[in-house]
Amino acid sequence: MRFRAKIVDVACLNHFTRVINTIAKLAKTCTLRLTVDKLYFILTDKVANGGVSMWCELSQGNFFDEFQMEGVAAEYNEIYLELTPENLSRALKTAQNAKTVKIKLTNKHCPCLTVAVELPSLSSSSRIVTHDIPVGVIPRRLWNDFREPSVPDFDVSIYLPVLKTMKSVVERMKNLSNCIMLEANLNGEMNLKIETDLVSVTTHFKGLGNPPWVSEDGSQNSTQDRDPESMAEARIDIRKLLQLLAGQQVNPTKALCNIVSKRIVHFILLHEEVSLQYFIPALA
Amino acid sequence: MGKNLGVNLQDSWVLSLALGGELASHGYSRGAESHFPSCVAGGAGGDRVVSVPSQSFLGVFRSLPSLEKTVEKCLISLNPQASRLVVQLHCKYGVTKTHNLSFQECELLQAVFNKELCTNTLRAPARVLVDAVVHFPVMLAEVTLGVSPAGKVSFRNYLDEDTEPNRTMVTELCLSEDEFQDVQVQQQSHVTFCLKEFRGLLSFAESSNLLLNIHFDSPGRPAIFTLSDPLLEVHLVLATLSDPNSSSQVRSTTLQAQPANGAFPPATPDDDFTGDDIDSFMIAMETTCKEGPGLPSSPTFPQRRPHPGAALESESSAMESDLEGAVPGTPPQKKFRSLFFGSVLTQSQAGTHPGPSQDVLAEDSEGES
Question: Which portions of the sequence form the region Disordered (chain A) (predicted)?
Answer without folding.
Answer: 210-230
